[in-house]
From TrEMBL:
Entry similarity comment: Belongs to the short-chain dehydrogenases/reductases (SDR) family.
SUPFAM superfamilies membership: NAD(P)-binding Rossmann-fold domains
GO CC list: cytoplasm
Name used for this protein in its record: Uncharacterized protein
Alphabetical list of Gene3D superfamilies matching this protein: NAD(P)-binding Rossmann-like Domain (3.40.50.720)
Organism encoding this protein: Selaginella moellendorffii (Spikemoss)
GO terms for MF: oxidoreductase activity
InterPro entries in the record: Fungal_SecMetab_SDRs, NAD(P)-bd_dom_sf, SDR_fam
Species classification: Eukaryota, Viridiplantae, Streptophyta, Embryophyta, Tracheophyta
Length: 284
């Protein structure tokens, strides 16, 4: 009899505790609007990430970073449309102080992040970088600048922003998504060329994979993925679109909607992986 009473007592005590814990969890989840940070948001895919994130959810907040907010007219137009849900901050991936300052601002005004997307990248820069068609065209300054922007930049952004990524938002886990490119795959390299761009994306892949292992060991783990957007009609691909079949040249809208669908499904089982726009994993 005493045993039966004891067995009955436990659930009677446990249920109210579980309900109150459940309520607290629900209230927390409901009260914290998700904050996403899109780095490299002045144009191209970054700008489209900002637009779609703002459009698809009326609660979430977006921090958009770019080198020069004063000149970022498209972001200013979005800010007019979503004055309470968008903040634009300056951040140049080649200047670590600006990354640190942006992280301070986010921490001060927005608290935890649930998503960080690193999009800034270069393939060509007028008078500075031209994608190499042969080894004889390789130039040290162009190679180093490409590595600085495409590989070191996103890694430094991860360094300063990852402490702000926390669970408790609407996602299964907080996510870092870095825009890479299929040409960064060593296993997939059958054409050669574009030495600096390819190698910088390979470096980004290794940096992200390595950082993903560390961030998975945190008490509050973060999932890190690499994404290939397809060949997308942006300033970056404009000079090289001639040989791309029409059906293989994506719009920004299409590519970003596919990438967001992947990001929305990311869990810890996916961390450290490299996905194409269609969800297929890409060989290293
Ligand atoms: N488009 C494609 O077909 C394609 C294919 C594969 C991979 N990707 C990758 O996708 C990402 C986005 O490409 P996209 O096509 O959107 O390129 P995009 O239209 O040329 O935009 C590049 C973005 O990077 C920013 N950026 C450049 N240098 C920067 C710096 N030092 N600090 C901060 N931001 C900087 C630019 O800002 P400013 O306006 O200040 O210059 C711009 O917002 C890149 O990483 C690219 O490698 C693109």
């Amino acid at each position: 009899m005493a045993g039966v009473l004891a067995r009955r007592k436990r659930p009677l005590l446990a249920i109210p505790l579980q309900i109150s814990r459940f309520r607290a969890l629900c209230e927390n989840a409901g009260s914290r609007a998700g904050v996403s940070l899109i780095q490299g948001a002045s144009r191209g895919l970054g700008l489209e990430f900002v637009r779609q994130l703002l459009e698809r959810n009326s609660k979430d907040f977006v921090v958009a970073t770019c080198r020069n907010p004063v000149k970022a007219e498209n972001l200013a137009a979005l800010k007019e449309q979503y004055p309470d849900r968008l903040q634009v901050l300056g951040l140049d991936v080649t200047d670590e102080d600006t990354i640190k300052e942006a992280a301070n601002q986010v921490s001060k005004f927005h608290g935890p992040l649930e998503l960080l997307v690193n999009t800034a990248g270069i393939l060509h820069v007028e008078n500075l970088v031209t994608p190499e068609t042969s080894l004889s065209k390789l130039e040290k300054d162009a190679l180093l600048l490409t590595f600085q922007i495409n590989a070191a930049g996103p890694a430094l952004v991860m360094k300063h922003m990852s402490p702000l990524l926390k669970s408790g938002g609407s996602r299964e886990v907080p996510v870092i998504a870095n825009l890479s490119a299929r040409v960064g795959s060593i296993g997939d390299n059958k054409l050669g060329g574009w030495l600096s761009y390819r190698a910088s994306k390979t470096a980004l892949n290794q940096l992200t994979k390595t950082i993903s292992i560390e961030l998975a060991r945190r008490r509050d783990p973060v999932a890190c993925v690499l994404l290939h957007p397809g060949t997308v009609d942006t300033d970056l691909s404009k000079p090289y679109q001639r040989n791309v079949a029409k059906e293989k040249l994506f719009t920004k809208e299409f590519s970003v909607s596919k990438l967001l669908a992947i990001i929305d499904r990311v869990g810890m089982k996916d961390t450290g992986k490299f996905f194409a726009w269609d969800g297929q994993e890409i060989a290293w």
